[in-house]
Here is the input.
Amino acid sequence: MKRLHLFFSSFSQNLFSSLMLVVITSVALISVQNVVGQYRYINHSKYIIDNEYLKNSDYFMVDISSLPLEYDKQLEYSNNIRENLSAFDGVEGIAYTQNSTAVYRSTNINLSMYNESMRKAFQKQLSEGEWFQSQTETDDIPNVVICGAIFDDISINSNITIKLYGNNHEITEQTVHVIGKIAYPYLSADYNTISEDVSAQNFLVQANIVIFDDNKQTRDLLDKHTILSSLSFSYFVLYKTDCTPSQKEKVRDYMDSTGSYAEYDKILHNTEKEVKENIVKEMITPIFLLIISTVLLISIATLNTYKKLREHTIYYLCGCSRKISFGYLFCEISIITLVATLINIVYVSYTISLYKSGQMGYNKSIVDYNNIFLSIAYCIFTVLITMILPFLVYRKNTPIEIYRRNRHD
Amino acid sequence: MIEISKLNKYYQIGNSKFHALKDIDLDIKDGEMLAVTGKSGAGKSTLMNIIGLLDSYDSGSLKIDGVEASGLRDSRLAKLRNQKIGFVMQDFSLLEHKSVLMNVMLPLYFNNKYNFREMKKLAMDALKKVGITEQASKKVNQLSGGQKQRVAVARAIINEPSFILADEPTGALDTQTSAEIMALFKNLNDDGKTIIIITHDMNIADFCQRKIEISDGRLI
Ligand SMILES: Nc1ncnc2c1ncn2[C@@H]1O[C@H](COP(=O)(O)OP(=O)(O)OP(=O)(O)O)[C@@H](O)[C@H]1O
Ligand SMILES: [Mg+2]
Here is the structure.
């Protein structure tokens, strides 16, 4: 209590400069966290699409401008293209989904049906349990794989109940059996991007989603009780391992005639370009700010030490040990970094809570407790680096030394 | 009780050593009022820094109330300074931008004996003894030199130390004010405080019962 009083009595002299530094440092730290979050999202996406099936695939996008207007005709048109594509010799399968929505614990969630190719293409997502074994479903309770923060507390092999909303707003309660969970950070496949410049992160979205096997039973079920969208205008076309270049050529010619495609290598290339161009560019300003604030901090810390040398000589006279005396100086400086770090931790925790409640699903950024480690690491590093000069100044200027100098001045 | 025997102090100047105190033998009994005199550069401040546990020495022994000072750690020395010694310096050594009260309380911040309320009370008592209670809430830089030195004396006595060390306490004061400060020391001495005053001014030394002189690092 006494010590705190003495500390603040001395610290009050630095209040303004400290406050400024806290602001600069906090802004810089928060920006760094945001960019790091984006980078982690890209990196995780890259990790998921980096597998043997997708490596031998193209991302195909139907030319939407040539679509017919009515839904039925669109469906027929897109199904046609898909069937034609899968009929090619070198094609092993089409990784596509059919989607719907439902409600779980009064939150809107997505439903998705994955066929076998889809499961192969996005197999790395699964963290617990397993994907569906084809054709094993017999009873009324379909097997599902779940993904999302709202399923955090659900364990494998338990049943959950979701509410399905039908064509005429009728509600059906459906129990499903959980056989698998998608790994944190709960990214699930997404085909909404139509662009040849598509990159890894475009294929993944943070969402709460229940994944069904694409079989007749579940298709009938979802068709009957929900508004199932079977339209799919973009998907991965997986090639067989023994697909010859000329077979691939034919598939690509067909894709060119009905739309466009992006080769896997192009996607990878786009992803790397994105990291280089966006992430590095966005990182420059906050890193620059951080360096500036650290340099400022070091200068202020050193100046402050010089300024307070005499004050601490008086402390020494009154019976304060050199160590404790330096402790006061240390706290006056470190409090800046500590407060900035604390603000950052509060910010990160708040962001995490937003993610958990599903309010920031489309931010394409992974923010979690690892980001807090980052702030703590920054804090320790900065505290150490900013105390080196003050420590040397303090050690060199002993109280006796200062008294002698004062007398001769 | 301060017992000094065969004490030597060297200063390192570049590659050579300067012998600043030579075989000092000195006992100071409780209740004494002692003047240490000598020409400039004789070694007065060096001796006072050592007695005040601010600086180290190279050989010999210094005992304060029976405790040998050499070899003690910084934290132990700080504690001894806090409990046993009150300092009054020529340059006042006060926190200029803080209140008189805060300055007087300062030594109490470095021990765990008193809470804040007790600290304030002790500080007011000390200010009463030096006769400047009205200035308690003023900032030190608003005071005159004589008032500042009174604040320093109040700070020196607040912790009830065994002795008071004063290095040229009147060096920055005019004759009239100097006499007042010396009268104050005399009063404290009459109340039983041990007082050691370092000065090159014989008129000041005349206030003390006992006088010793240092010349060229030696007691004569
Ligand atoms: N840190 C130091 N390094 C080198 N020499 C020193 C140091 N401190 C003091 N000296 C020397 O030791 C001698 C004694 O110095 P000291 O300060 O004790 O003298 P003094 O008697 O207090 O003089 P004054 O009356 O001027 O204050 C002087 O010659 C001084 O130059
Ligand atoms: Mg001197």
